[in-house]
Specification:
170 residues; alpha+beta; Mannose-Binding Protein A, Chain A; eight-stranded mixed β-sheet; 5 helices; 26% strand; binds calcium ion
């Protein structure tokens, strides 16, 4: 009897763990292999990145036109909250050499892009070094000053659930 209770306790704990891992964290939105959090609080690019890190995430890396279309579509769908606001994404030109890299994903080069015409322009004496969705450019990409206070998007991997292996009883 005692061993049966131990097995039941094990199964219960396994199922609880399983159900937690099978979803995105609270308030994150699931899409393909990622979970996204759309944050409607303005902060500098660095502070936004720290905020994402505190949630086990990073500023969003937008690496395909499909991913970009999903994020922009979501923001337009939620325009009561996001209309008129710029949002930070996770790339910067930190070396001031016009080389844009995603700060997550091992600093991979930005290959896919959706720059607004004339951007990135590194204006204000080259101080525009952080990537954002620019509201004035209909959410196409812009480089802006990293100290600006923008809303932002965090991203973390969605771990697809694997079916639990139930312990063999008997
Ligand atoms: Ca991504
Ligand atoms: Ca801006
Ligand atoms: Ca710019």
């Amino acid at each position: 009897m005692r061993s049966l209770w131990i097995v039941l306790a094990f199964v219960t704990e396994y199922l609880v763990t399983f159900s937690v891992e099978a979803s995105c964290p609270n308030l994150f939105v699931h899409h393909n292999a990622s979970c996204y959090l759309f944050v409607n609080r303005g902060m500098s690019w660095q502070r936004a990145q720290q905020h994402c890190h505190s949630l086990g995430a990073h500023l969003a890396t937008v690496t395909t036109s499909e991913e970009n279309a999903f994020l922009v579509g979501y923001l337009k769908q939620q325009q009561a909250i996001f209309f008129g606001y710029d949002l930070w994404l996770g790339a910067s030109d930190s070396l001031l050499d016009k080389t844009w890299r995603w700060v997550a994903d091992d600093n991979s080069l930005v290959t896919y892009s959706d720059w607004s015409p004339g951007q990135p322009d590194g204006s204000y004496q080259g101080l525009e070094r952080c990537l954002e969705y620019e509201a004035q450019y209909d959410l196409h990409w812009n480089d802006d000053e990293c100290e600006d206070h923008d809303f932002f998007i965090c991203e973390r991997p969605f771990n697809p659930p694997t079916p639990p292996l139930l312990p063999h009883v008997g």
